[in-house]
Amino acid sequence: MEVRARAPGKIILAGEHAVVHGSAAVAAAIDLYTTSSLRLLPAGEGGAADAVELDLKDSGLTFSWPCSRLREALGQGCEARAPRQCSPDELAAMAKLLEEHEIPEAKIWLSAGLSAFLFLYTSILGGKPGKVVVCSDLPMGAGLGSSAAFCVSMSGALLTAAGAVAVGGSSQAKEWEVFEKDDLELVNKWAFQGEKIIHGKPSGIDNAVSTFGSMIKFKKGELTNLKSRNAVKMLITDTRVGRNTKALVAGVSERASRHPDAMASVFNAVNSISEELSSIVELAAEDEIAITSKEEKLAELMEMNQGLLQCMGVSHASIETVLRTTLKYNLVSKLTGAGGGGCVLTLIPTCILFTP
Ligand SMILES: Nc1ncnc2c1ncn2[C@@H]1O[C@H](COP(=O)(O)OP(=O)(O)OP(=O)(O)O)[C@@H](O)[C@H]1O
Ligand SMILES: C[C@@](O)(CCO)CC(=O)[O-]
Ligand SMILES: [Mg+2]
């Protein structure tokens, strides 16, 4: 039987990076998905023919590990309903397994995702032979939460195959089935462990919004669902400048340790912006004047947040170019996700008049 699970990417409207340091942030799921398909293969004699295969459609690479090698390096797996952290020994064992694959230098950034895969697969399914295919609508490493969507869809597929979460079981179902709340919590916890391998020190916002969907406020691991009363339209521009979330998060933490007081004030200001933005999003605006005033406030908060992201050192020349370009049309933009390149959000007002 084949199991398929999909999870969405996200945009962050306010609060990226500061959320790692305890500030509030606001994020929304977007309708671009990563899908993980898993087929358990009949086990042979436990011999060399038994393997775990991974086909990464977006990067055009396939991998295969003999089950016996995985069991030897990473053990027999654990209780699928009790998520646990990857140990430094396991990280080292996975790095060794990956060395044997000679990943092309130009795609070396995939190693973190491969380690997250090996950890999730062997922890949840032990050394069972299986084939996993991953494909995604999301650009990788561009700020739209590709790593979280990868970990969430993978955890969903693995937990379903392990029988650790309940699904309706109708193989004829045309629509995607949605997990129950407890099962979503479990998926989210495993995905967070995967994100830790990719991001180093994630706040948990990306895996949370990818698992639970909709628009959320997130602070210190606590999630609040936001009911957006009016549609908020955003244009997403991909600068196509590649970057790595782990390095950017580490860079902000280093700046915070060099200038603790100044950076605490920056994080505090971002917290106020996210809190204000989340309450504005929930305001019901009935007429054009009210909607315009709501959008003006959102735009101003996004502009302020972008200034503070510059203070944190995560903007980039390519991002500044998008800011200047959209400003010519009186449109406000900010980076989204980890910055350093990647994607930029532009608020598109409901009543728009282009006068460059
Ligand atoms: N479809 C995929 N196939 C293989 N690996 C993936 C896929 N999607 C994400 N990854 C892994 O996630 C890494 C990108 O994660 P990273 O956190 O740097 O960026 P992001 O999640 O796209 O952006 P952000 O964290 O700012 O939202 C890739 O280098 C790869 O290891
Ligand atoms: C940069 C960051 O705040 C968001 C990345 O989408 C990292 C995190 O919260 O884990
Ligand atoms: Mg990421």
From TrEMBL:
It catalyses: (R)-mevalonate + ATP = (R)-5-phosphomevalonate + ADP + H(+). The keyword Transmembrane does not apply. It holds the Pfam family GHMP_kinases_C. It is found in: Cytoplasm. GO terms for cellular component: cytosol. Keywords: ATP-binding, Cytoplasm, Kinase, Lipid biosynthesis, Lipid metabolism, Magnesium, Metal-binding, Nucleotide-binding, Steroid biosynthesis, Steroid metabolism, Sterol biosynthesis, Sterol metabolism, Transferase. The keyword Metal-binding applies. It comes from the Eukaryota. It is an enzyme of class 2 (transferase). Pathway: Isoprenoid biosynthesis; isopentenyl diphosphate biosynthesis via mevalonate pathway; isopentenyl diphosphate from (R)-mevalonate: step 1/3. Its EC number is 2.7.1.36. GO terms for biological process: isopentenyl diphosphate biosynthetic process, mevalonate pathway; sterol biosynthetic process. InterPro entries: GHMP_kinase_C_dom, GHMP_kinase_C_sf, GHMP_kinase_N_dom, GHMP_knse_ATP-bd_CS, Mev_gal_kin, Ribosomal_Su5_D2-typ_SF, Ribsml_uS5_D2-typ_fold_subgr. Residues 296-348 form the GHMP kinase C-terminal domain. One of its GO terms (molecular function) is metal ion binding. Gene3D superfamilies: 3.30.230.10, GHMP kinase, C-terminal domain (3.30.70.890). PANTHER family: MEVALONATE KINASE (PTHR43290). Belongs to the GHMP kinase family. Mevalonate kinase subfamily. This is Mevalonate kinase. It comes from Eragrostis curvula (weeping love grass). The lineage of its organism: Eukaryota, Viridiplantae, Streptophyta, Embryophyta, Tracheophyta.
